[in-house]
Design a protein that fits this description.
This protein is α/β, with parallel strands linked by helices. The protein has helices spanning 2-14, 26-37, 49-57, 77-88, 95-102, 105-114, 129-140, 181-199, 219-234, 246-250, 252-258, 276-289, 315-327, and strands at 17-20, 42-46, 68-69, 120-123, 150-156, 167-171, 205-208, 240-244, 270-272, 293-300, 306-308. The strands form 2 sheets. A 6-stranded mixed beta sheet has the order 8-7-9-6-5-10, with helices on both faces. Strands 3-2-1-4-11 form a 5-stranded parallel beta sheet, sandwiched between helices. The radius of gyration is 21 Å and the shape is globular.
């Protein structure tokens, strides 16, 4: 897809440092080999240096010693332990517990980002989304603009005339099961901000529902309507509309009939789902049935960039996540 090629080119230009902590997964090493060979980012791998290098050699990846850090022997570990203890002692954590937590590679990678030793981290190939998010919350912290942690996917559908020539951002598809109206409003803002930053064009946000402009009455519809009202108050410059059914949001002919006065209907490129059931099912349907290329979950709402991975991710998806993390600025 053209957008992914552009993101790759931008990543090569900015040359950020990205941490990949899950070196027990051969897919991670294969992705690191591609990123290094194409000079898309400076990769740091976490693990036992000898074991990581031996594993890399088995796939023809000639790693330099500087690309691997063993958290258990790292000079950074004492400082990281003290920092984590200071951050979490109000929650009752002991110094010994802080040390144990910092020996977790995902937490160590998140702390590297906090301390400015890396631009971002990518994890999740063998770690649950919940654990990746906790590491980011505890170590990186919430962003300045917004305090709702959510996620989005960049979805590129081949041979598609809708959205931005088949390109969309879907949110939230991985984090909040049943968002409140305010959380939906914040998800919409974060997803639009991500779209503008990465795609470099204007986001048009649709708040999705099974109703379009009052065609149905239900508490689930009222939640979406309330989210739209909150967005108007809190983010008045955001181009957004809802509630909209999916076809009204992206198909011009349907939009003319169902929502003719809408600034978004028929041309939406950021799709905000009303709950995690709809979002998770929706992106996987498009990925598997429409053969869309999908990057994410990209985590939103943190001070610094980080990306989760599906545990079923491919090597190419890991490479894309690294590039996406590299081109994002601070949140």
């Amino acid at each position: 897809m053209e957008i992914l090629d552009k993101i790759e080119a931008r990543a090569a230009q900015v040359q950020k440092t990205i941490v990949l902590p899950e070196t027990d997964d051969l897919r991670i090493l294969k992705a690191a080999k591609i990123v290094t060979a194409k000079k898309l980012a400076n990769i740091i791998l976490l693990g036992d240096i000898t074991k990581v290098k031996d594993k890399a050699e088995s796939i023809g990846f000639d790693l330099s010693v500087e690309q691997v850090i063993n958290p258990l022997e790292s000079e950074y570990l004492p400082d990281f332990v003290n920092e984590f203890y200071a951050l979490r002692k109000h929650k009752g954590i002991s110094l010994e517990q802080a040390k144990e937590q910092m020996q977790n590679y995902v937490y160590f990678s998140a702390m590297m980002v906090r301390k400015g030793l890396a631009h971002g981290f990518v994890a999740g190939s063998i770690t649950t989304t919940a654990d990746v998010v906790k590491a980011a919350i505890y170590c990186i912290g919430f962003g300045e603009k917004i305090r709702t942690v959510s996620s989005c996917f960049l979805v590129c559908v081949p041979n598609c005339i809708y959205g931005e020539q088949g390109m969309f951002v879907f949110a939230d598809c991985a984090i909040i099961p049943d968002p409140s109206p305010m959380q939906l409003a914040n998800i919409a803002y974060s997803a639009a901000d991500f779209y503008e930053m990465v795609v470099e064009s204007e986001p048009k946000v649709a708040l999705l529902s099974f109703s379009t402009k009052g065609s149905a009455e239900h508490p689930l519809v009222e939640k979406v309507i309330r989210a739209k009202q909150l967005i108007t108050q809190k983010y008045p410059n955001l181009v957004v509309d809802g509630e909209l059914q999916l076809d009204a949001a992206i198909v011009p002919d349907v939009a003319e009939k169902k929502a003719p006065q809408s600034p978004v209907a028929g041309s939406a490129n950021v799709l905000v789902f009303p709950d995690l059931n709809a979002g998770n099912i929706g992106y996987k349907l498009v990925q598997r049935l429409a053969k869309a290329e999908v990057v994410g979950p990209i985590l939103l709402g943190f001070k610094n960039p980080c990306s989760d991975l599906s545990r079923g991710c491919s090597v190419d998806e890991i490479v894309n996540a690294v590039c996406m993390t590299a081109v994002r600025g601070n949140c």
